[in-house]
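User: what does the whole thing look like in 3D?
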Amino acid sequence: MSVTLDQAEKISEAAKAKATEIGVPMNIAIVDEGANLVSFHRMDNAWLGSVDIAIKKAKTARFFNMNSGEIGRLSQPGGPLYNIEHSNGGLISFPGGVVLKDASGKIVGAIGVSGGSVGQDHEVASAATAAL
Amino acid sequence: MSVTLDQAEKISEAAKAKATEIGVPMNIAIVDEGANLVSFHRMDNAWLGSVDIAIKKAKTARFFNMNSGEIGRLSQPGGPLYNIEHSNGGLISFPGGVVLKDASGKIVGAIGVSGGSVGQDHEVASAATAAL
Amino acid sequence: MSVTLDQAEKISEAAKAKATEIGVPMNIAIVDEGANLVSFHRMDNAWLGSVDIAIKKAKTARFFNMNSGEIGRLSQPGGPLYNIEHSNGGLISFPGGVVLKDASGKIVGAIGVSGGSVGQDHEVASAATAAL
Amino acid sequence: MSVTLDQAEKISEAAKAKATEIGVPMNIAIVDEGANLVSFHRMDNAWLGSVDIAIKKAKTARFFNMNSGEIGRLSQPGGPLYNIEHSNGGLISFPGGVVLKDASGKIVGAIGVSGGSVGQDHEVASAATAAL
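Assistant: Here's the predicted 3D structure for the full assembly of 528 residues, as structure tokens:
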């Protein structure tokens, strides 16, 4: 099973609510089990450059079944995955990409959020997953 | 003025309603005045290959301020814009991309729809613009 | 459900057997439900340029849930999908890409074959699907 | 002489056996003397993002006739090959890409493995080369 559009909409609504609560307009992307885009929302005044980043964060999380920031911890100079970002047409390896799991723990997609600090991006993405 | 996320959501809802009415799951992309993505929705079971096509149709329409099919009429072999599709990272020049105008007639963005025949795509895109 | 590696191996074996039978070394790619590569085989002496073509044929078939040649019929100059090949990082729209369906008729992936005439490519791809 | 498909299949089988033994589903790519793809296998549940990484590791190893991790040692900030990953459409310079040699020591291709830690990837790739 993969995330449906209805589920993606609920998750995005939760992300928008959290973004509004912390006062930072966000870009919010959701991909399915196959890492293909299901939905995208750019809140008014959110960074234009974060359109691509939000999408790449979501794909990165699903590509490796872990939060995007985990990849970034391993891809620093001297680290085991240094420069992994050159694969797959470009990865984004800082926080804001979070895997989506169904009730049984199976990964059904991922969300990517970009528009604030990476801490804020991850906060919004994490809060949104609770809507699934 | 550019299309807002609220407006994009209303337009997308109208597109989804029309797609449901004709029984064809669609990919629906909306770009703003700057040709940057505002929102995207892939209806369940819509073609995966139409994610990129819907986005490119919306961008193509806003890039040239005309419906995507108009570009296609001019880009045929022997035509004045032959192979214009090679520009801008790839255009889609068949119907389904429609410009969005505000009440005064000013262009504020564009919608791209892909998932059925080009006639169906254009029908859904055109119907959705009425929601603006 | 998506095609498994075991199933992909059986399908590829059937493709290789058919290719050997007609005496044309082939490139054989199989993608899953999400259009992601599952397996690839290049038979000895098969065209190098067909590595990419076989993969793109498989993706094209799954992207639009139809055989790749169907897209090509519609993408000719003057046709409704003219120049659709510019989407999705490049499509291949001539025959040789065939959708894979399970016993219930559900699409679970696609196969792409390249190395001979398009008639031979399609013949090998079609014969291989019987192994699923 | 270049690695044949039969040899690539034997090497891939050995890689799959080792991957199964250590309990990590892997992506396994083999390229020939010309750095062109010969075979690819994604084991069920292996990371989607490792499709591209396994292929790039194999190419990287054959491009420079050394294991991919050797390139990574030289491409760190301040190192002699800093950012070499930008070449050739993207390299992967961490372990998991290993050159394939015939009985006489001549390089006939390379294998790339991705799906676990870089230590596991290299372990599987190295074990597989014994099958040649």
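In plain terms: Strands of chain A lie at 27-32, 37-42, 97-101, 107-114. Chain A is about 40% helix and 20% strand.
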